[in-house]
Amino acid sequence: MAANQEQEQEQRRRLLDVASRFPLPSGCRFSYGTAGFRAYGATMAPAVCRAGILAALRSVKLAGAAVGIVITASHNPVGDNGVKIADPDGGMMAQHWEPFADALANAPDPDALLQLVLQFVKNEGIPLGGHHTAQVLLGRDTRPTGEYLLDAALQGINAIVGAHAIDLGILTTPQLHWMVRSKNKGIKASESDYFTQLIDSFRRMLELVPKDKSGDELAKKLIVDGANGIGGVKLEQIKAKLSGIDINVRNSGKEGEGILNHMCGADFVQKERVTPHGFSPEDVGVRCASLDGDADRLVYFRVSSPSDNKVDLVDGDKILSLFALFIREQLDIINNNGSQVNKSLSARLGIVQTAYANGASTQFLKNLGLEVVFTPTGVKYLHKKALEYDIGIYFEANGHGTIVFSEDFLSQLESLINDHSSEAANGSAQYHAAMRLMAASQLINQAVGDALSGSLLVEAILQYKGWSFQNWCELYCDLPSRQLKVKVIDRSSIVTTDAETKVSQPSNLQELIDKETANYTHGRCFVRPSGTEDVVRVYAEASMQVEADSLARSVAQHVEHLLG
Question: What residues does Mg(2+) bind to (predicted)?
Fold first, then answer.
């Protein structure tokens, strides 16, 4: 009993001590969203320290399962930084812990923080004390404030008695998520294991490319814009070991090459539709890919013409379409393989998008006979929905997305491969299709969107299909769109339904949107409140750019009139 009391006193002392070392800056308010906590790097230490406490408590709650912390501000400018927590499955922290995360980060003084933690652990039934261990894996990107914030995170973790922190160094965000997932599955989880899995599964994918589709040297050439971030650094480390592809990394993060995310990176290319820093007219016709600062987003592009800096863009919607086409094709080969008596593979394939997906991509996928569903904006919603399928594919237009395969499906696939292994030498189409799906499931990072693994899967599929960048572009033609922001007094006065595609409050706004939309061919428009500021976002599509602009403006005026 005395020992328990001593541990309780020690726990209280540690929490009060760490909270007094990292006082909340005046005027700062932190909010935990899809990106975790994010702000100017120099102000982030208190939030990062408290995220350390949070991650350790999460691990104790989950019986000592490994939880991850990644210190990054992703595609934000170099001066910003942030912190987010990965749950044991490698996904984002469970949403119902977010209100506690906010309260903890904004606790005004040490006593308030202590009371908050004690009340929360009581409500959640979290056993604090030395008998209960926690393990937290930490990674960070290349930002100059990363090391200083790592120390704050370590101090937060160590404020929970029995917690153990493992610093994994400088990593991409998806690497950290992959390592957390792997560690909790009881499989090898180091950075070299991650690289080995990527290199080996990419090689297997290329070995399964039909001989008549191998393509010329240009088809195997890829220029990658590394956003002067960690993704470029890691790609430089492994590119020599990737056979069957010639990768040239620009904005690789080397000293003097440029500034993180400044005029480069997936976010810049997707929004501006121009070449990133370091690209020139000499690159016309070559396939290019762009990662963001922490390598969890990926877009492709091609320099359109030697006379200007515009690009032909392939965004997340078209990456998703390529993946969906490939997986559907392999399933069809397995299940409709001529007259042979074969074991079919039952699989429910689901495509998950948000309302921001271009309408042309949704129509393309539906025309293939695929099941397409929508969720509210945010990776946490997309990933959760994708897990409901045997194979779930999701992407946002910004290039964040992945494919998830259910354990049951992979087990069926393995049985099928074993049953048909004797046919391997005879070139059985069904066996090869099953092997391709298995290799794809190992190449893609199933924990989270990963620009490195995603780009290698794109490259393997393009080689398998014998496609050029142009073939890929021609899958469908994007509908012109326009996004606008309308400042409002209170964004919560807009309430949406049907995955943010319809407005339920104010009651007459949806009727006005429908009326405006009806004036345009292929017209589509929705509005939604911003998650971070008092603005309402308006998205409009139509068959011509001038019409999309006009529709967005008309609806923005209605929003302004009702709520401004």
Answer: 74, 292, 294, 296
Contacts for 185 with CB less than 8 Å, ≥ 6 apart = none
Q: Where are the domains of the chain?
A: 3-170, 193-199+317-473, 481-563
**Residue 2's pLDDT band (cuts 50, 70, 90):** low
Order the strands of the 401-405 sheet from edge to edge.
Answer: 371-374, 349-353, 391-395, 401-405
Is-same-fold flag (3-170; 481-563)?
A: no
E strands, 272-348, in order: 288-291, 298-303, 311-314
CATH classification of 3-170 is 3.40.120.10, yes or no?
Answer: yes
From residue 245, give the alpha-carbon distance in Å to each of 229, 335, 449, 459: 22, 31, 22, 8
Q: How far apart are CA 540 and CA 536, in angstroms?
A: 13
Determine the topology of domain 481-563 in CATH: TATA-Binding Protein (3.30.310)
What integer pLDDT is reported at residue 337 of this predicted model? Answer: 61
| Digit-coded pLDDT (tens) for 337-387 | 644 445 578 899 999 999 999 999 999 999 999 999 999 998 999 999 999
Average pLDDT, the chain: 94
Q: What is the pLDDT of residues 314-325, one digit of tens each?
A: 999 999 999 999
Residue count of the chain: 564
Cβ-Cβ contacts under 8 Å for 376 (sequence gap 6 or more): 354, 496, 499, 500
pTM: 0.95
The catalytic site residues sit at 74
Residues annotated in the binding site for substrate, as ranges?
396-398, 528-532, 537
Cα angle vertex 292, ends 480, 169, to 5°?
160
Residues at the binding site for Mg(2+) are: 74, 292, 294, 296
- CA dist., res. 357 & res. 382, Å (int): 12
Under 8 Å between Cβ of 286 and 221: yes
